Amino acid sequence: MGITVQNITGNTAMVIWPKMAGCVDSFYSIMYHPNWNSALSSYTRKSFQKEERVPTSRSSFVVENLTPLTTYVVCVTCQSANPSSDQCRVFNTLERDPASVSNTKKELALGIWLTSSVLLLIIAAVLLYGCLHLLCRRRRERLQGQDGTSKQDPGKAWSKSAAYVSEELGRQSQLRQDSEEKHPGGIQLATIIENPSACKEPAVPAAESRERAPATGQGLDIK
């Protein structure tokens, strides 16, 4: 059939075959298998690890995901039958390309970075949710405490004012009792001070006072 294998690398190889005018099927079957040993392996379809199907309009196919430094056999048939030896070729893959190695490392690093980023985002979201939940709960408790304090404040103010008034009344009564015990005569003075109208004497006219004064003086001269 004139099958050739070109552009062999550590992971890929291009298989080329001539178009078959007598192929009645609508596809070509490309079969390949690693670690091929023609002395121990037979050219049967079940002996091949991989099989790809391409339209009959094509005459080439790139085999991918190969293992470096490995012997492969590839066969191309135009019918769903076991291939013959003239429809197969054996080739060896090369060492892994430095570019593919660097690409693999980049892909690995990118995957690790993406995984770490996702994990960090999940952890940050969990922590943020916990903090917001804690803040909301504390705020709710604070508001409830303020409501309870505002409800209790009028009663406390009234009780404090009543206690203050009773305390002042008791203090005044105690002071009054102490003053009565120490100064009994001071009661009248306190009464006079409280009711100054009770101690007022009738007003004496000025003319009568002048007349009484000389009379008093004459009596003294007679003696």
Question: What is the CATH C level class of the domain at 4-93, in words?
Answer: Mainly Beta
Which whole number gives the mean pLDDT?
A: 75
CATH superfamily heading of the domain at 4-93: Immunoglobulins
- Helix coverage percent: 40-55%
* Class inferred from helices and paired strands: alpha+beta
**Strand fraction band?**
15-25%
Q: How would you describe what is shown here?
A:
The protein has helices at residues 98-182, 186-194, 206-222, and strands at 4-6, 13-16, 27-34, 50-55, 60-63, 71-77, 88-92. By secondary structure, it is α+β, with helices and mostly antiparallel strands. Among the domains are: 4-93, Immunoglobulin-like (Sandwich), CATH 2.60.40; 97-143. Strands 4-3-6-7 form a four-stranded antiparallel β-sheet, with no helix packed on it. A three-stranded antiparallel β-sheet has the order 1-2-5, with no helix packed on it. Strand 1 and strand 2 form a beta hairpin. The model is unreliable at 198-207 and 213-223 (pLDDT under 50).
Short descriptors:
3-stranded antiparallel sheet, 3 helices, about 15% strand, Ig-like_fold, alpha+beta, 7 strands, FN3_dom, membrane, about 220 residues, Immunoglobulin-like, disordered C terminus, rod-shaped
Secondary structure elements and their pairing?
Elements: E1 4-6, E2 13-16, E3 27-34, E4 50-55, E5 60-63, E6 71-77, E7 88-92, H1 98-182, H2 186-194, H3 206-222
Antiparallel strand pairs: 1-2, 2-5, 3-4, 3-6, 6-7
